[in-house]
Amino acid sequence: MEAGPSSSAAMSVARRRRDALAQTLASRRLPEGMAEAGERVPGAVAPEVMPFLRAADEIEPYNPRVAFLCRKYAFKKVQRVDPSSTQRGVRQFKTYMSIKLDQDDTQVLGNDANEIQQFYKKYCASMSHISEKRNFEEMARYYQVAYALYEVLRDVTNNKVDPQVMRCAEMVEENGRHFKNYKYNIIPLNFPGSSEAIVELPEIRDAIDAISDIDGLPMPHMSSIQSQGDKSIRDVIDWLSLAFGFQKSNVENQRENMVLLLANISTRTAGQEGHPLVDTVNELWKKIFGNYKSWCCYLHISSSIMISHDVTEHKKQQLKLLHIGLYLLIWGEASNVRFMPECLCYIFHHMAKQLHDMVDENYFQPPPGFEEEGSFLKNVIEPIFKVLQKEAQKSRGGTAGHSAWRNYDDLNELFWSKKCFTKLKWPWDLSSDFFYQGRSTARKPKTNFVEVRTFLHIFRSFNRMWMFFILAFQAMLIVSWSSSGSLSGITDGTVFRNVLSVFITAALLNFITVTLDIMFTVQAWGSMEWTKIVRYLLKFIVAIAWITILPLTYSSSIKYPSGAGKILNSWIGNWYNESVYNIAIVIYMVPDILAALFFLLPQLQNVMERSNSRVLVLLMWWIQPRLYVGRGMHEDILSILKYFFFWAVLLISKLAFSFYVEISPLIDPTKFILDQQVGNYEWHQIFPFLPRNLGVVITIWAPIVMVYFMDTQIWYAIFSTIFGGVSGALSHVGEIRTLAMLRARFKSIPEAFSKCNATKQREQAFEHRSFFCVWNSFINSLREEDFISDREKDMLMAPSYSNNLSVIQWPPFLLASKVPAAVHMAMNSKEGDEHELIEEVKLDRDRYNAVIECYESLMIILNSLLLDSNDQNIVNDIDRKVTYSMRNKTFLEDFEMAEIGKVSATLAKLLQLLKSEPINDVEERKIVNALQDFMEITTRDFMKDGQSILKDENERKQRFMNLNINMIKEDSWREKFVRLHLLLTMKDSALDVPTNLDARRRITFFANSLFMKMPRAPRVHDMISFSVLTPYYNEEVLYSSHELNRKNEDGISILFYLQKIYPDEWKNFLERIGVEPDNEASIKGRMDDIRLWASYRGQTLARTVRGMMYYRRALELQCYEDMINDQGYGLADLDRAKAARSKAIADIKFTYVVSCQLYGVHKASKDSREKGLYENILNVMLTYPALRIAYIDEKEVQLQNGKIEKQYYSVLVKGDDEEIYRIRLPGKPTEVGEGKPNNQNHAIIFTRGEALQTIDMNQDNYLEEAFKMRNLLEEFLLTHGKSEPTILGVREHIFTGSVSSLAWFMSSQETSFVTIGQRVLANPLKVRLHYGHPDVFDRLFHLTRGGISKASKVINLSEDIFAGFNSTLRRGNVTHHEYIQLGKGRDVGMNQISNFEAKVANGNGEQTLCRDIYRLGHRFDFYRMLSLYFTTVGFYFNSMVAVLTVYVFLYGRLYLVLSGLEKSILQDPNIQNIKPFENALATQSVFQLGMLLVLPMMMEVGLEKGFGRALAEFVIMQLQLAPVFFTFHLGTKTHYYGRTVLHGGAKYRATGRGFVVRHAKFAENYRMYSRSHFVKALELLILLVVYLAYGSSYRSSSLYLYVTVSLWFLVFCWLFAPFVFNPSCFEWHKTVDDWIDWWKWMGNRGGIGLAPEQSWEAWWVSEHDHLRNATIRSLLLEFILSLRFLIYQYGIVYHLHIVHSDKSFLVYALSWLVIAVALVSLKVVSMGREKFVTRFQLVFRILKGIVFLVLIGLLVLLFVGFDLAVADVGASILAFIPTGWFILLIAQLCGPLFRRLIIDPLHLLCCPYGTGGACRGPCCAKFRQRTGAALRKMGPWDSIQEMARMYEYTMGFLIFLPIAVLSWFPFVSEFQTRLLFNQAFSRGLQISRILAGQNGSGTKSD
What we know:
Elements: H1 3-16, H2 20-27, H3 46-59, H4 64-81, H5 90-104, H6 112-128, H7 136-156, H8 163-175, H9 177-181, H10 202-211, H11 222-227, H12 236-244, H13 248-266, H14 278-299, H15 313-332, H16 341-361, H17 375-394, H18 408-413, H19 419-424, H20 456-461, H21 463-481, H22 493-499, H23 502-521, H24 530-556, H25 564-571, H26 579-599, H27 602-610, H28 614-621, H29 637-675, H30 694-710, H31 712-730, H32 739-745, H33 749-755, H34 764-784, H35 790-796, H36 818-827, H37 834-842, H38 845-865, H39 869-887, H40 891-894, H41 900-914, H42 921-942, H43 965-968, H44 971-985, H45 997-1009, E1 1026-1032, H46 1041-1045, H47 1054-1061, H48 1063-1073, H49 1080-1084, H50 1087-1095, H51 1101-1108, H52 1110-1125, H53 1131-1149, E2 1150-1156, H54 1159-1164, H55 1168-1183, E3 1187-1198, E4 1204-1214, E5 1218-1225, H56 1235-1243, E6 1251-1254, E7 1259-1260, H57 1263-1266, H58 1269-1273, E8 1287-1294, H59 1301-1322, E9 1336-1338, H60 1339-1343, H61 1359-1369, E10 1374-1384, H62 1390-1409, H63 1411-1419, H64 1422-1431, H65 1433-1459, H66 1461-1466, H67 1475-1482, H68 1489-1492, H69 1494-1505, H70 1507-1519, ...
Parallel strand pairs: 1-2, 1-6, 2-3, 8-10
Antiparallel strand pairs: 3-4, 4-5, 6-9, 7-10, 8-9
């Protein structure tokens, strides 16, 4: 009966609580009844139609008939635009529009023409009364409605408009001209008479006045102004625009940028009287020109900024503003040249000189060629951009070698030399060698550095580290080899003298380093300064001298030399004095001694390196080549001591472990093996003269040596875990990690909060109010995000409104069960025990305060609720009675305590009614009845003499009838009702509130962070301004309803998946929108809300934008708080001023730009998905007015000569796709380098402020963290170590961890990196860089130094980290802060994760080759260099070494077992104890890098969640096969890192960020992991099988397991991990489908245009793409590595029974006959298929039969005639399979080698332009095509291909067989589902399968 009103009330509440974006989506749909669910206004007609529909919506409440006419006109417009309804959705729109118009067509008195004209006049009259204080957007909306109305009016009246109406229209046109034509971004600078709140801010006014001061500047002639159209000079920016021909949009953009910079900096600087911005301009001037000044000093040239000291302060300020404006205008139009900061310095240098000449001569004359708008772009930027384009073309999309073309760094570094002035001149000398002329593509020399593909870069970049480890190994080996074998043996003179030989090794290593320097830089000598070339040559000569002097002097110190020592001794005569060698060592060590002294004096070293004094430059010349970057990077002494201590302890531990565990145990077995005679070989000995079992020694020591060089990475993992844990504990990380800890410390949080904010010292109540304001906003955001329910929200909320109570009102969850407990105690108390009762209640202070609060709140509510004075008197009498009883301690005597429970229950009933929003008389009557019941029970039952209080009881008049119903509807009172009701009714302790784990995590982290060390936040007005920039390409913005409901083959939709893994959030969501969970129809009707709910749980742009816009929401709220604190505001004034002022301050402090690279393409696209992306982005913009979208627009323009030219623009839009700026670009920016950094770069000009936060599209933010942004930005003003920071690192929370077990593994790994890993990198190691995380950049520092990333093709694939490299090399300082965090999504599926790991490994491979790593490796001190190595490329190199160690170990075992040496050693009777030898065999099994990554994870989880929880998570990880996951990805890192360094092929890999609920086909997994894992795993498998088969006769099985157990685990992981972690992999029907799909893919023949996913042949060819562009060096290395596959055949054939122990080489030679027979048979079959399969099928079958019979005959002959055993057949297979693979590898290498050695030289000779491979002419293309076809015909390519196909069939079958067997057992599939997903989803998946089966829906139909 009563469900109707309450449900409608709930619906109204739900509407108010709807997400803002959901409201936008609904508002942009057609009105209800006009379209189907989800139907929008068609995009094709939206621009024409939407203004009239919006006008109709705006005026409908005032005049429905006019609104109807507006819609009718909109319908007519659609008919005109698309009369045939050809555009998508137009026909449906017309149909529903006509139906709606028919429904709404209501007649009015009079005619429509009069009606609309009368309304128009009234509307115009109302507009004239609009307050001047209305903001720009609101006024623009009024005018837009007026324009639309007038157009409709003219149509309705047939242009017969009343003159009065025409005058109104003219007035609107005149007054609204600015609103119609002028678009602005943040400040309406060009809007005359603007009274916007932002323009009225004093700092904005001062900034505008400052740049508007053009007095004293020479003015242009009137003719030049007239030639520029309506352009007038209003400020210095306009003046510069006319002087140098900048674009209008660039001018407007940089004007606003400059105004905001000045305004924001001025809030923190003190001005002078009459010159308020003097200090502001000086500070901005220093920041902008810091790099330019440094550049001038470096080149020893005079600065072009010439400001005389004699001029007035006013003139100085004007000139400085001119220079600042000039630089910003250059930067704003520089496009890709922004990546070349010193090139910008060069341009500015010359233009500033021209500027000075104009000002100094007081004559305005633009330089020649700069007279027109856009001439700067044409004359200055375009020539440089064309050079970049040419170089990008030479890179052939990144496939050419880095040495073949110049990247951004090469071109920029040309400006580090004075040569650029004579070479390039000004204006540009386009005939210079720098620019390309005509079709010339001749290679030009690199600059300073050449990126060569070789692993030697690892040695060259970190040569000091390798020298240290090599020399330490040599010294430890010498000491261990000595007679004592202990460290004490070094005191022996002979041992010590032998140890001194390490200096000879050091000289040799130094010689290698210098040689590599010359080899790798020789291609750059053409552009290098002669002094650097001389330095390289002198270094080489000195290195040769030392490797000559040290051996000679060392040999002189040996008394009885032998061998080479004797020869050397004879050369040097009778020099037997040992001191000669010692003197040589001292001289050799002088540079290192000086370096050690300078290490302890970092400030002196910084001064010397930064000095541009020619004397100091000459002194430093020998130490390091002089470069513009990398100077003065040394830290302060305290930081140095910290990281020195870290590495000193680590290195001591590592070397001690290596000495005692790795080296010493092997010495005795090695000596014994060397003393034995050469063992009995079981094959033909390859090196018969190899003495003393040297091969065995090398086999044993090789893996040990590799482990020695690799295990420092393990020690780093251990020590970083320890130091990171200690540092985290000292930083208070994890002090509040549970709800119990939160409750215990909650009352101290307001005080901690107060210390973090710059509020004035006030009373405690004020502190609490300020904190509660933030706390409540935080809790509200949790409710909006559906992390908590309504009840939980009420329990967590603190009072929002002041109640003037005597106690502090804490959130109810702290007071849960306190009042019911007190009531229970009172009911059980006895009369006379009042004191005891009160004391018992007071034992719990919270309980006592809760009782007081309840009573005082009740009195306030009753007095406010009752309107009748008599009723109020009764309440007051009761209050006096209670007060009197308490004061006289007679409360128990005056009141019946047994009835207090009844009082509480009736009061709770009353409050329940009060808080449920009554809307009709029935509800009001219930409240009256409940109140009367409460008063009656109180006075009659509870109070012993309460009846006396009720006066005139016998009167008919009813008491408590006259209530203040309006009060009940107010939010402030409703909050009181809810709180009091909770206090009375909460009987549990609320320990589990909130129940959602994410809500708990956020609450505890926020509370904990307030106790961490952070700077005090300033007022919002005074804070550092900042921007957020997000690059976006083509990812999801919002999930569509189709995507959410589309089912996969298991019948699982994304929506179902999300409902199961987030069940509590789904329940909270339905509660928020007012829909019952069982009401399917209502749920389907709220699809907009559901789309958002799902999108906010994915990695979508909508989620990122919502999170970033929390910054603005937080700033507005904090601004409101600041205004309360300011004494100048009264409460009345505050309410009026709040909205406008807080919005204005938020506008100048925060800007958010999303760089949607393809937004323009999506807008024009007809593809449904792309159009949907555009519409969704538009909806997001409409929802968040402060959001800006930047994109690259492409237009085709017809030139005067008739040609069509493509022009590109950087465009900024806002709101309803309103274009603000359009700045032309010199070309397509994304073609010149990597896409993402160029996407960021084109949009960075639209950012504002002094700081810039980079946010990826898969990130999120939280409101409570946004409140701390002010604190974080203050870090820029504090000194951290040597200087103020330039990049602020921020921690992250990985929010995708709950999706699946894989996501959890990835999340845990990433979390440890972004927390404990970054913590250690920043402090103590001081090598934290930028890793693509939500770091905050010093915007002015980086915009003048190359930007926030690098963009060269391929080499800068991991573009983010190069920002860190660049910042550090330019003396920046990167810090890390953990009191603030943002969210980040990670990949959640196996293939997604593998793509991500591959991308990062590719990036690290390219970093290994780059100049930044080389320079940091050489310019850092030794210990920072170690930190850099082990935390960047060293980690990937050591991962590769760990895997290579396995190969070296197993091939060594293969050598020992097949040669028979292992057998002879183990069975040697002279060996009594073989344990050391067994340990030598098994040493490598101890060192597996995979699971050591878990150490930092456990430490961080232990800190933040407790070590018990960390141990539990560790155990669960093992049960969910985490070791399998990490070991598998060790192989991913190794494969892609090694391939990238060796051959290149690095590329951006789109990982996909969706939810993985689909099953990946077997063929897909095979394609992805075949080369990276499967082939390698099968190779290891064969090695293990051979080792087992040929050593089992003499070796114990326990020893074999001991040696190989970890290797079998590695093989299992690499073969089966992709299938273990593949959803539904073990479902039988999926297995069958997978087999059919794979078989079909394998059988498909290749062809033109076939993708690798369609055909095995196409895939096989694409897998070898990396070899096509490989160098000869890398191809030869591949050839050498491939030779390992011949060992199997060579070793196994001598063990066959058929050879009868014959060890002659002829046995091996004859074994190749088998290979030859197999290949000939394959060729015959291949040729037969080609010749006969189409026409002569029978002949082909006969041919195959003959071949088969011949092979069978040969096999029978071998069995009968040559004594072939059955075991020999299996052994032969093991022998010949690797040989066949070797043949395949060689065949793949032959093509590229032949092309490099023969075709390319011929091509170079024949090319008419002499450029060879770089030429793209038609003749060269035909040459390449013909030579390729000839090669294919000449070679046995078809046979090789068929042989490869056979191998692939075999590998696929071997891998598929175990999967098929396991698929027979249903429990395996169920186990896998539980392994991959959480329990709720696993159960839902099983149920859905059952239902699908019952409904007869097969998987294919889904």
